[in-house]
Design goal:
By secondary structure, the protein is α/β, with parallel strands linked by helices. It is 38% helix and 17% strand.
């Protein structure tokens, strides 16, 4: 009997849409399906507080996505059933409402027997599932919710309850393992990028062109990108939120879904990559950081816990002035040490290694 004939069942409870930027959630579903699992992917489980401003923001985002010509759809995988969540975010009375909604819209999930359940967000339905209906209960901590703040107390209570009942805790963030969940046994597992094949690397002597790729939203330091465009050529790949005003000096390169094409285009047109976050980013290990390391271009990042942990491989700036100093004083010989460090780091997060660690103890 081969792996594809096993027909085990898995449930993934995710806060992202299946058609969102391909990331850990979808990659895990893909690995499980390729390993013989029938996967139920419960998408778009909401966590934000039920406030008028949040409701308005969600409606506005949906409208903007409808208008956004860069929107795209991810491939539907054999063995993966995508299910739209019909649940309200956690709040004082949400469990009463969500139990009613579950029995109306998600009765099959409630009654199904799963070999493994992987939870990404501490929503009510994750605590409704009957112990007799699953063999393995895993929480993949992709955010330090209480550190970020802005969520309901009900969500924080869910988070603690899920940590305590999980058979296994995973995370990709150094901060979550070292600080946030220091009292738990947590396995650090960084998501690999399986599709990167670089055509030709570049030997950067001087930085003239800087690239940002990914969504351009309120968590990105737009002021810095605009300022940089007065002195450097600044390129952006990705989707730009409607409320973001970028300088006319910045060259928009469009949206490229294929990560392999994206990184090769960035290498061709750029001397450096920037990851300019603002606000509290502790508890986040950006997927774009891994993609950036594959480029072997200099990577400049704002300061947060996980970027500091990667300081041997990237340049971490405290403020705009320090970034300008780093850019002006870039030394290609010293940068070779960072390339060596990043290569060693990437060697330890191969696709096969990720799959092995993910399925360890399950199959």
């Amino acid at each position: 009997m081969n792996d594809l004939e096993i027909n085990k069942k898995a449930l993934l409870i995710s806060g992202v849409s299946w058609d969102a930027t391909w990331q850990r959630h979808q990659e895990t579903a893909k690995i499980l399906s390729e390993s013989g699992y029938n996967v139920d992917f419960l998408e778009s489980c909401k966590t934000s507080k039920l406030t008028f401003s949040n409701i308005f923001r969600v409606l506005k985002d949906k409208y903007n996505k409808y208008l956004d010509k860069t929107s795209s759809f991810n491939e539907k995988l054999t063995g993966v059933r995508v299910i739209k969540s019909k649940q309200v975010p956690p709040f004082v009375f949400s469990k009463i409402i969500n139990k009613l909604l579950m029995h109306k819209y998600h009765k099959d999930i409630y009654n199904n027997k799963y070999d493994i359940i992987i939870i990404y967000v501490p929503v009510d339905i994750a605590l409704f599932l009957k112990k007799d209906n699953y063999k393995y209960y895993v929480f993949d901590a992709i955010r330090a919710f209480s550190v970020w703040g802005g969520y309901s107390q009900a969500l924080y209570h869910n988070e603690k309850a899920i940590y305590d009942k999980s058979d296994r805790l995973l995370c990709d963030s150094f901060f979550i393992k070292d600080v946030y969940l220091k009292d738990y046994t947590v396995e650090h597992l960084i998501t690999p990028i399986s599709t990167i094949s670089v055509d030709k690397f570049k030997n950067v002597k001087k930085i003239r062109t800087i690239t940002y790729f990914g969504s351009v939203s309120n968590h990105v330091d737009i002021e810095l990108l605009n300022k940089l465009s007065n002195k450097y050529k600044v390129l952006i790949w990705g989707s730009v939120d409607k409320n973001i005003n970028i300088s006319s000096n910045i060259q928009y390169m469009g949206y490229e879904k294929d990560q392999n094409k994206l990184i090769n285009s960035i290498i061709e047109h750029s001397d450096a990559i920037i990851i300019p976050y603002i606000g509290n980013m502790d508890g986040v290990f950006p997927a774009k950081l891994i993609i950036s390391l594959y480029s072997r271009l200099p990577v400049f990042s704002s300061t947060f816990y996980d970027s500091l942990k990667m300081n041997d491989s990237i340049y971490v700036y405290i403020d705009h002035s320090e970034l300008y100093c780093m850019l002006e004083n870039f030394n290609d010989e010293k940068f070779k040490l960072k390339i060596k460090s990043s290569s060693l780091f990437l060697d330890h997060i191969s696709y096969d290694e990720y799959k092995y660690k993910l399925l360890k103890g399950i199959n």
